[in-house]
Write a structure and sequence with these properties.
20 helices, Rossmann fold, alpha/beta
């Protein structure tokens, strides 16, 4: 059954249309992913399908009984409602039936009649069919699934953040249960646990749906068809997001081969016509002219632009980049306690945890913006860090993009170089002369990432770097970070991004933090295979057991052919040079600590002792790395 269809849709705001001539059909059971770069008109199309906007040309056909519901990116909520009121509004018709059933039962108890009994039976059957006797349970289930606590249910909406209000709007739509759901970025503001719950809910849900999302894991789990939005058409692909990418690539290759064959045929035919149009074979030449005239163009699929992002070649840091010793931090209540963590050069550490678990606070504590309540954090030798703030508050709104990325440590860099850097992050033309505050969210995120590149740091600390980036910009960022020679700490809810980037993941749980080697999928596999195991490979902290930093690997005395590497491959001569540098720093620190004057300055002496311990740890690790290199290289 066709629930919604559109034909010849065109929408234009400026001189060029956003899209033109679009057509689609949505049938019962469809779960469709709508993909396309930022600015391609995905939100505009959803608004037209929902009846909130009018197309310039074309029409939408929906049967009279079909209900269409839209989740907007920025919902407009009533200020006088509680969270429960907002969510339960999606089941208002069932609440009304409940009240009618109670009224009918009371009337029947006083004066029974066939009319009242028939109506009561109809209402009762409808309530049973739609689980109308467990309405409160359904509301609570959805709110809890989207990450709300029971003690928040009856708080006024005005006391929640914008992200929490967006989740309340999503709860209402899910409970409304329309025939067609139009979901615009439904995973925004959801942590990983809530996103996984939503995936399961949507896969089981009755309505057909069109989803706009940049979450590739989410699209893989939920959708059964993908529509790629082009300016002049919607290309349809069966299957999930991974199937779409595979089919698109195969189709692109097939059409490319056909186009090359056609070009070769045209070249041969034109050569034949040129040689024979006035000779004995002029009739054949004329026939081939007509064939060429009838020859149509073969449709080609152009690639969407993936910005060639890069973070340059930073200076080399020490082997140990960050060392946190038994740090704790909290505000009204503790967020993490007794956390010990060592980050080594070249690692890309993804930090996972529910909303409100302290991920951003941990990043800011590690980079020094916040002081721990106890414990201490030390940066290693020659570490230069750069921080991407998810709120993008570090760049003034009144700066144009060229000036916004000018590095303070190199103020003389010329505008041409800065423009070239912005171009590598997908920002070209007049957009670079706009003020930062007037740019879209995606443009602001790309500008902030370009600013990090300009700083040429060897430690990148990224808080939700994929926010506002489309699928192709995320591809570019993933490639740039994988090629980056420095160290990366990042927080994100994009599981696909974690899979592509992370060499380790730090998981913040309710009573402890644990670190796992590998990416998100490897962490999931370990968790599934060891559900009863409370001692994973690298415990970072625990409220029950004293936390320990990962120790330096001991040499394994066995056949080198059977030994697995503990460190990345490096030439022994490179490690020897670093050992010499570290030993020289150790000697310099020993000389300073031997100075009687230093002992009168307690703060300076404390810093020297801390630096000395870092150098000692680094030397131990370098020696272990060198021994492994000698044995296995």
């Amino acid at each position: 059954m066709i629930l919604l269809s559109a034909r010849d849709l065109t929408r234009q705001f400026d001189s060029e249309p956003v899209f033109a001539g679009l057509g689609l059909e949505i049938r019962a059971g469809d779960r469709v992913g709508l993909v396309g770069p930022n600015g391609s008109g995905k939100t505009t199309l959803l608004n037209i399908l929902a009846g909130l906007d009018e197309p310039d040309t074309g029409a939408i056909d929906t049967p009279r009984t079909v209900r269409v519901g839209l989740l907007e990116q920025q919902p407009n909520l009533a200020a006088d409602r509680t969270l429960w009121d907002e969510a339960a509004d999606g089941l208002q018709w069932l609440y009304e039936l409940q009240r009618e059933a109670e009224t009918l039962a009371e009337q029947i108890s006083q004066e029974s009649s066939d009319t009242l009994l028939r109506r009561y039976d109809t209402v009762h059957a409808t309530l049973e069919q739609h689980s109308g006797f467990q309405i409160d349970h359904r509301v609570a289930e959805v709110l809890e699934g989207l990450g709300f606590e029971a003690d928040e249910f009856h708080r006024p909406l005005t006391t929640f953040s914008g992200g929490q209000q967006a989740r309340a709007s999503l709860a209402r739509l899910l409970l409304t249960d329309p025939d067609v759901m139009l979901l615009d970025e439904p995973t925004n503001h959801l942590d990983i646990a809530a996103t996984e719950w939503l995936e399961s809910f949507l896969v089981r849900a009755r309505p057909a749906m069109i989803l706009v999302s940049h979450d590739r894991f989410f699209l893989d789990k939920v959708v059964t068809r993908v529509l790629e939005l082009r300016p002049d058409r919607l290309d349809s692909y069966s299957g999930n997001f991974s199937a779409y990418r595979r089919q698109r690539s195969e189709r692109q290759e097939r059409l490319g081969k056909q186009a090359r064959k056609q070009q070769a045929f045209v070249a041969r035919t034109e050569d034949f016509i040129r040689r024979n149009q006035y000779g004995q074979k002029h009739k054949q030449a004329a026939d081939r002219v007509r064939k060429l005239e009838r020859l149509g163009d073969i449709e080609q699929i152009d690639n969407f632009s993936v910005p060639p992002m890069t973070f340059g070649e930073p200076a080399r840091s020490g082997e140990i980049v960050i060392e946190a010793i038994e740090i704790s931090k909290g505000f009204a209540e503790p967020l993490f306690e007794d956390l010990t963590l060592r980050v080594e050069r070249g690692q890309r550490l993804g930090i996972l945890g529910p909303n409100g678990s302290g991920k951003t606070t941990l990043l800011k504590t590690l980079l020094g913006d916040l002081q721990p309540d106890q414990g201490n954090v030390r940066l290693g030798h020659n570490v230069e860090l750069a921080y991407f703030d998810q709120g993008i508050d570090q760049i003034p709104d009144d700066l144009d993009l060229v000036e916004a990325i000018r590095p303070p440590n190199n103020p003389d860099v010329n505008p041409g170089q800065l423009r070239s850097l912005l171009a590598r992050f997908g920002l070209t033309g007049d957009i670079v002369l706009q003020n930062f505050g007037h740019c879209s969210g995606g443009e602001q995120s790309k500008t902030a990432l370009a600013r990090l590149s300009a700083l040429n740091a060897n430690l990148l600390i990224l808080d939700e770097p994929t926010n506002h980036l489309d699928l192709w910009a995320r591809d570019g960022l993933e490639r740039a970070l994988c090629e980056f020679a420095g160290t990366v700490l990042f927080v994100t809810h994009d599981r696909f991004f974690i899979d592509q980037i992370a060499t380790h993941v730090l998981v913040i749980e309710e009573d402890r933090c644990r670190i796992y080697d590998g990416n998100y999928s490897q962490y999931l596999a370990f968790r599934e295979n060891n559900e009863s195991d409370t001692s994973p490979p690298h415990p970072v902290s625990s409220s029950q057991a004293a936390p320990k930093a990962r120790s330096v690997p001991e040499p394994v005395e066995n056949d080198s052919s059977q030994r697995t590497r503990q460190f990345p491959y490096r030439k022994a001569v490179e490690i020897e040079a670093e050992i010499a540098e570290a030993e020289l720093r150790k000697e310099e620190l020993e000389e300073q600590m031997a100075d009687p004057e230093i002992h009168r300055d307690t703060d300076r002496m404390t810093r020297l002792v801390g630096d000395y311990e870092i150098v000692q740890d680094e030397l131990e690790m370098l020696m272990a790395h060198w021994e492994e290199s000698i044995e296995l290289n």
